Amino acid sequence: MTKLSVLATTALLALSGAAFADGDPAAGEKVFKKCSACHAVGAGAKNKVGPELNGIVGRKVASVEGFKYSPAMTEFGAGDKAWDAATLDAYLADPKSYIPKNKMAFAGLKKADERADVIAYLNKFNEDGSAR
User: Fold this and answer.
1) What is the mean pLDDT of the chain?
2) Given pLDDT bands bounded at 50, 70 and 90, which one contains residue 3?
3) Do 108 and 17 meet the contact criterion of CB atoms below 8 Å apart?
4) Within 13 Å, how many C-alpha atoms sit on residue 87's CB side?
5) pLDDT value, residue 22
6) Is residue 60 classed as helix, strand or coil in its secondary structure?
7) b/e map of 18-55 (b: 16 or more CB within 10 Å)?
8) Under a CB-based contact definition with an 8 Å cutoff, are residues 23 and 117 in contact?
9) Which helix H or strand E contains 27, and what residues bound it?
């Protein structure tokens, strides 16, 4: 995916607000199993190969205490950039293209409905892992 198409997708999602508004959290919990080898969410979640994802929707990029982010992710998160639904959607579609040289090895979720479902599922958790 080219940077231009990623930007266009991100802009379209930001305008539509559909990045997780139509997502199904129950379906997202099932899709999240693809992520759970490297990430945890919910009560007692800890960093694994990737950071824990409690409170990810709206959280500042590269801000989980105790997790060593790649220089690429740290640079991407410079300033007050946060993981809103549109940014998560674009990143989850193709992590390596969206943030080149980041250390996430996952190829991405190619289906828009799976991304929306995962984002809706993740949006259920506060930073402390409690349910919203």
Assistant:
1) 89
2) low
3) no
4) 13
5) 83
6) strand
7) bbbeebbbebbbebbeebeeebbbeeebebeebbbbbb
8) yes
9) helix 25-31
- In the chain, the amino acid numbered 15 is L
Tokens of 2: 């080219």
Identity (one letter) of the amino acid at 72? A
User: Number of H helices and number of E strands within the chain?
Assistant: 7, 0
Task: Tell which phi-psi region holds residue 70, choosing left (phi > 0), alpha (psi between -120 and 50) or beta.
Answer: beta
Sequence-ordered strand ranges (E) for 27-126 = none
Reported as a single tens digit per residue, the pLDDT across 10-59 is 444 444 344 556 899 999 999 999 999 999 999 999 999 999 999 999 99
Phi, psi of 90 (to 5 degrees): -65, -40
Tell the residue number behind the tokens 């099932």, with chain if given. 30
pLDDT above 90: percentage of residues in the chain: 82
